[in-house]
Design a protein that fits this description.
globular; 7 helices; mainly alpha; single chain; 175 residues
Length: 175
């Protein structure tokens, strides 16, 4: 029997941004650094690897290339909407590193919100507005429908399973 790994959005996202240099490129772009030479200097990434990571981030729609020189051809890299949506993820990762890796080097850079205050990110439940701490989460796998699964359960068994999933506040995944 072959093992089929669990599919999820986390695995898909890691295909794009789950490598150290990719996250450091995004950090630099979020700090306002857009040119290859400056990104390379601030991350320490080898040029060939940085080129590959930038290509992946551009082709995946996380960054866009903007020309700033035709002779020689030179580009800046800017976050797309998809890239900008990753900024809170990096903020949370930064806060995690500061808290749980106290002996590691830390940035002196602080992020200010538009209100003028230093940002401290947190997650909260959309329904009850309580903070999410991690131990208060439960993963629930929605029932899957397979051709042989519904034998003997009647023609509407799969519909019933989907109603149960929806009642639990979940939406069934489409594949």
């Amino acid at each position: 029997m072959s093992v089929v790994p669990r599919t999820c959005s986390i695995a898909s996202a890691l295909e794009v941004v789950g490598e150290r240099w990719s996250l450091l490129v995004l950090r630099e772009v979020f700090y306002g650094v857009h040119r290859f030479v400056d990104i390379q200097r601030n991350t320490g990434a080898p040029k060939d690897i940085l080129t590959k990571r930038l290509t992946t981030l551009v082709t995946s729609g996380v960054l866009e290339k903007r020309s700033y020189s035709e002779h020689p051809p030179r580009f800046e890299y800017h976050a797309t909407d998809a890239g900008t949506a990753l900024r809170p993820v990096l903020l949370m990762l930064d806060q995690w590193g500061t808290r749980w890796l106290p002996d590691a080097p830390h940035s002196e850079t602080v992020l200010l919100h538009d209100c003028g205050e230093v940002v401290s990110a947190h997650l909260e439940c959309e329904s009850c507005h309580c903070p999410i701490i991690g131990t208060d989460l439960t993963a629930i796998e929605p029932p899957t429908v397979s051709p042989g699964r519904d034998r003997g359960r009647g023609p509407h068994a799969a519909d019933h399973d989907l109603d149960v999933v929806r009642h639990q506040g979940l939406e069934p995944r489409t594949r």
